[in-house]
Specification:
165 residues; five-stranded parallel sheet; 5 helices; 36% helix; 14% strand
Length: 165
Amino acid sequence: MAHVPRPAGVLPNIMVTLNDTDFNKRMAEGIEEMIDIFKTRVGRAPTVLVIGAGSGIVPIMALEAGAAHVTGLEANADMAHVAQHQIAEAFPGHELWDIQQCLSVDYNQGPHDMLICNLFGSMLNSKSMYVYAWNALRRGLIRNFGTDQKPIFFTVPQQGTMFYW
């Protein structure tokens, strides 16, 4: 079962995430590294799908790192509007990006070359990161560069550690 955020209103954890400079620095570094790896292996810039576009910070990181195009999905209508505004400020026009207000399970356009799931960052299992990634791969939202038996796909983050306090 995937996490379903509230459909409207500013998310209570958004300010914590925006102010977490260590997380944001590591996320930006991971995105830049994976885009560089993709460019080296495939020979072009990737198209990127961001599940959990939030305020737009992660789609902006992907564009700054050289993504060819970024599609961001955000279930929360108010946050999708914030993301659209923030990305338009940094990257005017819509030729490089698109933000859609929808659940990832309702999205059916693809395939994209890379998946960035901002939901990975804070609670790996409670926000069902594996469900999102596997669902996106099986539904053809992200490109499989391997085989059905051994799928290869580009995602950020690549791994995570969850701590309980």
